[in-house]
Amino acid sequence: MSRKVRLGIIGFGNQGSQYAGLVADGRVGNIEVTAIADIDPARRELAAQQHQGVTLFEDHLSMLDSGEVDAVVTTVPHYLHPFMGIQALERGLHVLVEKPAGVYTKQVRELNEFAASKPELTFAIMFNQRTNPLYRRLKEIVDSGEIGAIRRTNWIITTWYRPQAYYDQSAWRATWGGEGGGVLVNQAPHQLDLWQWICGVPQKVFAKAAFGFRRAIDVEDEVVAVVDYGGGATGTFTTATHELVGTDRFEISGDKGKIVVDGSTTAVVTRFRHSEQEVSAGIPPEEIWKMTSDQFDPDEYYTQETLEFDTAWGGQHAAVLENFAANILDGTPLIAPGSDGILGVRLANAIHLSAWTGREVPMDFDEDEFLAELNKKIAEEGKFPQQH
């Protein structure tokens, strides 16, 4: 490709430095990092050592106005993603926001609406786990109707073990005012995205969350949520950061089949020869016993396929960066359009609101009520300004 997208990185922390490294290592062929902005002098010095020739800026606005970048990626604290995304779009720059798109739907909606007013600009989000070949295949299977209408989904994802030292390393980490929450906004956004990307968006949710259950933090470190898809279909989502031996198991049960995923690398796909209702209607009383005895012949009722992939990661961050640039250069469809970011934020908000109030919460919840409740938590912490 003759032309490369000139990328500016806002924030040279763990993620920003990783992205700069991916480009420097030649893993993203259609991007060149031309600028890095960070308010921390030590981080700018490190960037200068690692990426000679890249222009460094003390603040992001100077970089946005410099004319040295075509696009930016926002690797900054969660609350800043919508704010900085809008600032970049205002200046005619393409934007890739980190996950989550923000902390509360009201601010993410503002970002989405502004991005929609700039259709000539590319707006994407770093949902890198959508590049996982296993989940891409499962979405194809579900979308095609091979397992029929979804009746139940379950995801247990507790492979996020974090010791207390993890939370103690930064004053903003695991705070309402600095990070916006715990496991739902830090570790689990990818699963909240994949869950809805594959299974659809639920109508309402009821949740129980434990705040500082096993760690000295104010935010949630364990969550169990039950969602209602309508028509009797339900789903559960369980996540935690304190299980020393965690579990990653995802099940999708349909009326014509079932999918069971272990470790995000292996899935067993069961396809029924007839719908479950037809099977039930076709079993006479005298043959009921066969279903629970050695006379049961599974081949009579279903086939099974095991999908295995060498890695759970796919192309991950490099693939999303390359796809982002390709969309800018030639219109290649985005893996994760930026507008999709509000879905995971909305579900996380609904889960929080349900856990705070003890009631079932619809997906069209009152955004002002959520923000008021969040600001109560921020005020109780007394460390950060409230949000607007």
Any descriptors?
single chain; about 25% strand; 15 strands; alpha/beta; 2 domains; Rossmann fold; six-stranded parallel sheet; Dihydrodipicolinate Reductase, domain 2; about 400 residues; about 35% helix
CATH class of the largest domain: Alpha Beta
Counting DSSP H or I runs of 4 or more residues, the number of helices is 12
Radius of gyration equals 23 Å
Would you count the extended β strands for me? 15
The tally of domains stands at 2
Portion of residues within helices: 25-40%
What's a concise summary of this model?
By secondary structure, the protein is of the alpha/beta class. The chain has helices at 14-24, 41-50, 60-64, 80-90, 105-116, 133-144, 164-168, 189-199, 276-282, 316-330, 341-357, 367-381, and strands spanning 5-10, 31-37, 55-57, 71-74, 94-97, 123-125, 150-157, 204-211, 220-230, 233-240, 248-254, 257-262, 266-272, 302-308, 361-362.
